[in-house]
Structures are given as C-alpha cells and as structure tokens.
Amino acid sequence: xxxxxxxxxxxxxxxxxxxxKELKTATEVDTFMADKTGTSMIIVNSVCGCAAxxxxxxxxxxxxxxxxPARVATVFAGQDTEAVAKARSxxxxxxxxxxxxxxxxxxxxxxxxxxxxxxxxxxxTIAAELVKAFDENC
Amino acid sequence: MGTFHDNKSALHxxxxxxxxxxxxxxxxxxxxxxxxxxxxxxxxxxxxxxxxKTKADYVKRAAKFGVWKKxxxxxxxxxxxxxxxxxxxxxxxxxxxxxxxxxxAPVVEAPVSKAxxxxxxxxxxxxxxxxxxxxxxxxxxxxxxxxxxxxxGVKGGGCSGFSYKLEFDAKKDGDLVVPxxxxxxxxxxxxxxxxxxxxxxxQQGLSGKGFVFNNPNATxxxxxxxxFSV
Lengths: 138, 230
Fold this sequence. Notes:
CATH superfamily of chain A: Glutaredoxin
Number of domains of chain B: 2
Largest sheet of chain A: 5 strands, mixed
Order of helices and strands of chain B: EEEHEEHEHEEEEHEEEE
Distance between the termini of chain A: 37 Å
Distance between the termini of chain B: 30 Å
Number of domains of chain A: 1
Oligomer: heterodimer
Radius of gyration of chain B: 22 Å
C-alpha cells in the first residue's frame, strides 16, 4: 500500500529539485526510454533510509560531475508501481531492488548500482561509483 | 554507518552473505542477529553445486546483481554459521581482486573485421572473418531473405546457468543493431549486458568446433562452450 503522498512529497522533491525528471506512469517511462541516443539514467527512489541517507544525496552529488547523463529520471518504488515495473523491464534480468540506479548508453544498460551497493554507504562513496560510470560512458 | 534502528544489530537492513559450515549459503537482508540466530528477510538460499554453481560462483553473481527473493523470512541457527559478510563488501573485494590480476598473455585470435569497431569504441560484439563468412553462407543457403540477420542472445539454462542463442531472425523493436558488411547482428537489450565484449569465431574442419563464443564476462563455461555463468 502506498504511503500518504504528503509523506513522500519531500522525498520526490529532493530529486526533482535537482533537475531529475519524475516518471509516474508506464507510458512516461516508455517515452523516456524511447530516446536511445546518448546517455540516460533512471533512479529508483524509495522511502527507506538507504534512499534518504545514501541514494538521493549520492545521486545529487554525482550530478555535479562535469560528465553526466544527458537525461536523468526517477521512479518511486512502492508509490508509482506501474512506472517502477516498466522501468525494471529495461534493467535486463536483474533482481528488483530499491533504491537502485541504472545508467544507459544508446539504450543499453551500461551500469547498475543495486541496493546492496547503496545500503550502509555514505553519499560520497555512492557518488564516486556513479561518477566513474559517467566518466566511462558520458 | 548505522542502520537507523537502535534496538537492532549493526547489520540490520544490510544485505549479507551468510555462509554456513555445510553446503548452504544464504543471501538476504539482515533483520537481526544475536548469539543464537541470524534472521534474514527477502532472502535466497543456494546449495553448493546446485545448477552447476559453487557457493563462490553464486555469491560472486549475487554481489554483482543481487538475488531473486525466494523467502520472506529465514532464521539461521548461529551454530551453523561460518561467516557473515556484507554483500556490498563482497562486490568490492571481487572488483579489486580482478583489477589486481596480472594482464593475461596476449592470445592470437582470428582477425576481426574493422566493421565491428564503431567510432574507435570497443565493439559490443565482434565476429571473426571466419564467422562472418560462415554466417553469410548460411543466410544465402536459407534463401537470403531481406532483413534477415544474425540474432545473438542469452537464455537461462544449460549446465553453467546461461546458454547462448544463435539464430537467423529479422530485426525486432528495441533491438541493438551491429552492422557488418554482409549482414546485421541483432541483440535484444536484455541480453546485451551479458554479451558485451564477446567474440564469435567459427572453427571449421574435422576438429573444428563450429561457432565458438569467447565471452570475457563468463566466470565459468561448460566443456562444450555452449553454456556459461557470470
């Protein structure tokens, strides 16, 4: 059951205020992924502490890098379930986890940070791994 | 770093590998642990040798991608536990170990067409000259229908976990296209993550194996070369 929207609104805003596009429906995800040119990134957001303490600040830090994906979007696990399911369909045969981050280049998944590489880690460490992927692919 | 619940162990909420003194290894999120037991949620169990994978093979793959949840809740007696390791630490150890490996001796491979390299980038998949000639011969043999190319993919199964898929097919929506001079190679996007960097060769003659995949992503390959794990 989704959390009350008032509770998750700040969690959404933490990313959207950094310029991340929010995708709330399966159609919006398909539209985002239809553009296969260049690099893109999808963050699966969530209500858990790992997202608050690690993933969201880590992603925001990484987006300060000179090289970064041309298009960045987020879906919210547990809240916008159809959008999340559609996003995961683009993640190859990888077990679902949240939060997580997927980086695509020319429509192909080139980097994936699963939950277990976020939990218990500080934002700078998470950002460093993403920046490495950005420098290699963007 | 803390896990936000003072009344739980330091590993609460952390995905861990629980190795046992027996054949089983568990991967899941630690709910709690004490002197008597370890409690995991959203967990999976692997038995050494199942699906052709040792515990180490299974944990290595789990460290890269995670695990499919098969159990909501598991209680593991502490007496059975050999070690508890953060799955994220396993991934870091694996990455550092692979980075520290000495560069392999150069291998003389069948020449690969320059068409496989796009804009100087490493090709997604590469076909040797011999493989290209054989593929084109087979396409012609089958009527050389317009739009038909070589589809490469992976599917679950085989003695090592995954099997290669090699077939003639038309392009489908969402396919990645690798153009060659005489035909196109099509990859579905889900398979690409497992096939990036492979070379497909063709060994003919009485002692030749036919089409041979050289996959840098594979950690294990079965004897016939048709199945692999990552």
